[in-house]
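Figure 2 data, in text form.
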Amino acid sequence: MGPEAYYNRYVTRRQKAIAFFVALCVLLVGAAVSLNIGWILITARQATPLVLGIISFALIIAGLIVYTVFLVLEIKRNEEHDSFINAVTHELKTPIASMRLYLETLKSRDVDEARRRQFYEIMLEDADRLHRTVEQVLKAGAVAQKPKVAGRAPVDMAALARECVQLARVRHHLDASAIALQAHDGHPLLVAGDAEELRTVVANLLDNAVKYSGEAVRVTVSVAAPAPNAVWVRVQDRGVGIPRSQLKRIFNRFYRVQTRGLKQITGTGLGLYIVRSIARAHGGRVFAQSEGEGRGATFTLELPRADVKS
């Protein structure tokens, strides 16, 4: 059984478990209501037993509903953890297996200089992928433990976005036209914060945009000040898009977009969670817009603008 078939089977089993517990809750609530009505009819002329019975049945029904909601949430949480473990395992094993294969080839065979250099480049890319995965996991744990930014300094978001765009072009082997940068406003677009963490935010948004763009990567990064006290960094792609029903959930930890055409896209489900956590720690926010599947997506990072002294 392949990974996809196993995952589909797991999701079906989880959905059946959720449906079973919801149906059981409905049946138990119905039975409790029926007993409550019968109790009222029997003790209609006795005030004390009637009141006690109504209160007891109300507590039982409330307990059943709370228990069922808790159980369903726990099932979903376990599914998220399992999905995360599977994704991280894949992200770790794949580059390691690739590097091992090339190293064994170099060890056991005589390889000409051109192919040797090609192998080295591939292994470096695999090492970078491995490093990014570990870095994301560590960063997710760090942002969960550190709700506020310890040290703040002025950060020019236009310059930072330019650095991230150049890095993304190199990392994903893209032409200069694949990622366009637009900087609006004639004044420095400064925010107060941690430059490294803000670089992580913009880099994650760019990586996501490239990853979900498909073969033809067309990404636009805009840096602007829509209001005197705010700075926006907007990343827009023309990729697979996001179903509107999932727009509010994509920033949850471990959550990954469920839509057609994503079977070959890997990831840990932590990137957007890290983006939201860092944005909140800087007193800002991040939000997504999409017209639906196949119509691209736009992510906007909004941060408080730092005071510029003339």
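Caption note: The helical segments are 3-42, 47-108, 113-145, 157-171, 195-211, 271-281.
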